[in-house]
Amino acid sequence: MTTDLGDRGVSEGAGLAALVLLTVVVTASVGVNVLFLDDEGGSTTEANFSFEHQSQGSYLLVTHQDGSALPSDRVRIKGPDANVTWAEVAGWNGSREVTRGDLVQLSESSAYGSQVGSRDNIQVLYVYRNGSTKVLDEWNPAGGAGDLG
Length: 149
Prior knowledge:
2 helices, 9 strands, Immunoglobulin-like, four-stranded antiparallel β-sheet, alpha+beta, 20% helix, three-stranded antiparallel β-sheet, disordered C terminus
């Protein structure tokens, strides 16, 4: 007894094309997740900082005001003459988190290693595992007069 499949069969070429298409779609979706989504477990990385400049001492106090608790070795402070982690400036172990109320002093005598002038631009950055960065906050973004305290 034989069965005639007639027009109901799928050719090997069509089956192979469907498998290749499925593989491409899955690979593309994984690639998009790796490249464009937050690599910190899907959490949003947001934080606000306050800045207080003291012109007499040429230093800047940076305080975590609000937002995510962040690993101190992933928070970088970038200025015209320095680029250091929060952990380095605070003298912390890198696994300690920066939380609301934590502050660091950027000065020549700290790990920052440079005076902070009233026209300096200072950025607080978050560095993801893949090396990309996000600006969390900024002092003197246009290099203006700044706060003279």
